[in-house]
Design a protein that fits this description.
It is a single chain. By secondary structure, the chain is of the alpha/beta class. The chain folds into two domains: 256 residues, Aspartate Aminotransferase, domain 2; 92 residues, Aspartate Aminotransferase, domain 1 (Alpha-Beta Complex), CATH 3.90.1150. The radius of gyration is 22 Å and the shape is globular. Helices cover 33% and strands 16% of the residues.
C-alpha cells in the first residue's frame, strides 16, 4: 500500500510544534519608534564598541542579508532561513520533524558527522545506508535509501552533495526521484556546503515541485567566511516558518551579518568565483600529483575543495605530514575509510608542501 500523500509538508512536522508560536522577542513585535526601551538593553555602547554595533539586539533575520542571500541562491526570500552555519539548520530540522524515540534520521556514511550528532541529541533513531564504492568512487544507493526510509520510519533523510569526506555528487534526477518517493514520509535534506566547487547544478532547481525538499548552503567554504557562521536552509515557506519559530531569538549577530554583506558585494563575489576556479584547478593538479606517489593507494574524484586519499600506510603518511607542519583530517575511524586521509585544497604553495612531505615515503605493500 502506498503512503498517503500529505496536503502539506507541515504534516511532517511534529504535532506539538505545528502551531508553536516560539519566543516573541523585542525585535519581532513589529513596533517602531525613536526611543527603544523595550528590550532592557544598555543605554550606552560598550567602550570597546566605538561603532555601537553591539548595543542593540540584532534583527532575528537581517532583511538586507536575507535579500542578498536569496538573490545569490536564486530563491524567494520566504524560502530562506539564516542560521549559525549549516549546523544550526541540521539541528533545527531534526528537532522540528522528529519525535524522540519514534522518528528516525537517515544518513549515508561515511559522511559529515553532524547528522548523527543531531539525531543523538534529539533521541531520534539513526538509520544508516552506507555509500557504495565502485570504480568511479563513492555513490548513494537511492533505491536502498528510499526503501530503508520507508521501512524504518525515517522523517529526515540527509544527502551530502558534494559529500564530505568522499567528494561525490548526487545527481539531481536521483534527488527528485527520492523526494517524490518519500512524500508523506520524510523531508529530504540536500547539504550543499561545497556546492560552489561542483560541476552539477544546485538542488534548489527542484524546490518548486517538491515541498519535502530542503537545501542547505553556507558561506563558510567557498566564501571564506567560516568564522562569521552564516548558513541557510532553503525550502518550502511554510516549513521555513516553522524552523524560524523553533530557532533562538537572535541567531545572527550584527557583526556577522555586516561581514557577510561585505563579503557578498559584486566585487567580492567576482573575487570568490576566481578563487573557486583556482581551487578547482589546484584540486585536479594535486590529485594527479598524489596519484603518482608510491605511498598513495587511491585518490578519489572530488567535487569539493578537498581530496579523499587512501594510503598504503596512512599512519606513516599522517605522521610525515604532521612533521612537516601540515594538518589534514584523519578519516581512519570512519566506516570504509580505515586507510584514508582527507586533504583540503590549499594555496599552490601549500599543496606543493603536501606533495613534498609525502614524496620521501616508501610504499608499504
Amino acid at each position: 500500500m502506498s503512503a498517503v500523500v500529505p496536503a502539506s509538508v507541515l504534516d511532517l512536522v511534529r504535532d506539538d510544534l505545528r502551531a508553536f508560536a516560539g519566543y516573541a522577542s523585542a525585535r519581532t513585535t513589529g513596533l517602531t519608534g525613536e526611543i527603544w526601551l523595550n528590550a532592557n538593553e544598555s543605554a550606552w555602547a560598550n567602550p570597546g564598541d566605538p561603532d555601537a554595533l553591539c548595543r542593540r539586539y540584532p534583527e532575528p533575520q537581517p532583511e538586507a542579508l536575507r535579500q542578498r542571500l536569496a538573490a545569490l541562491y536564486g530563491v524567494a526570500p520566504a524560502r530562506l532561513l539564516i542560521g549559525r552555519g549549516s549546523d544550526e539548520a541540521i539541528d533545527l530540522l531534526v528537532r522540528a520533524l522528529c519525535v524522540p524515540g519514534r522518528d528516525a534520521v537517515l544518513a549515508t556514511p561515511p559522511v559529515f558527522g553532524m547528522y548523527a550528532v543531531s539525531a543523538r541529541l534529539q533521541g531520534a533513531p539513526l538509520v544508516e545506508v552506507p555509500l557504495v564504492e565502485d570504480g568511479g568512487g563513492f555513490s548513494v544507493d537511492i533505491d536502498a535509501v528510499a526503501a530503508t526510509a520507508l521501512a524504518r520510519n525515517a522523517r529526515v533523510v540527509f544527502l551530502c552533495s558534494p559529500s564530505n569526506p568522499t567528494g561525490g555528487d548526487v545527481p539531481l534526477a536521483e534527488i527528485m526521484v527520492l523526494a517524490r518517493r518519500l512524500r508523506g514520509q520524510a523531508v529530504v535534506v540536500v547539504d550543499e556546503a561545497y556546492g560552489e566547487f561542483s560541476s552539477l547544478p544546485s538542488a534548489t532547481m527542484l524546490l518548486d515541485g517538491l515541498d519535502n525538499l530542503v537545501v542547505l548552503r553556507t558561506l563558510s567554504k567557498a566564501h571564506a567566511l567560516a568564522a562569521a557562521r552564516i548558513g541557510v536552509a532553503i525550502g518550502d515557506p511554510a516549513l521555513i516558518a516553522v524552523l524560524r519559530r523553533c530557532q533562538a531569538p537572535y541567531p545572527v549577530p550584527a557583526p556577522c551579518a555586516r561581514q557577510a554583506l561585505d563579503g557578498l558585494t559584486d566585487a567580492a563575489l567576482a573575487a570568490t568565483r576566481e578563487r573557486v576556479d583556482t581551487a578547482i584547478r589546484e584540486r585536479e593538479a594535486l590529485a594527479r600529483a598524489l596519484a603518482a606517489l608510491p605511498t598513495v593507494a587511491r585518490v578519489y574524484p572530488s567535487q569539493g575543495n578537498f581530496l579523499l586519499v587512501r594510503f598504503h600506510d596512512a599512519e606513516h603518511a599522517f605522521a610525515a605530514l604532521l612533521a612537516a607542519g601540515i594538518v589534514v583530517r584523519d578519516q581512519r575511524a570512519a566506516p570504509q575509510l580505515g586507510d584514508a586521509l582527507r586533504i583540503s585544497i590549499g594555496t599552490p604553495a601549500q599543496n606543493a608542501a603536501v606533495v613534498a612531505a609525502l614524496q620521501s615515503l616508501e610504499a608499504v605493500a
